[in-house]
Amino acid sequence: xxxxxxxxxxxxxxxxxxxxxxxxxxxxxxxxxxxxxxxxxxxxxxxxxxxxxxxxxxxxxxxxxxxxxxxxxxxxxxxxx
Length: 81
Fold this sequence. Notes:
This protein is of the alpha+beta class. It has one domain. It contains two helices and three strands; from the N terminus they run βββαα. The chain has a three-stranded antiparallel β-sheet, with no helix packed on it. A hairpin with a 6-residue loop joins strand 2 and strand 3. It is elongated.
């Protein structure tokens, strides 16, 4: 585990193909702050999912002459985090 200057910790998996990032926080951080931070991150991920879905929708409409995305394909579209 490496520690950054601003409390950011990077932890790669064993083969180095994926990296997880964590924010080091002092023990005095309240539960309320962690709840707010996790809610902000969840909202960001949701916004990115919506953006990717709309971009995919526009791409399919452009290629298929206005046909919507099938329900099977709609369930597979996610932002790659």
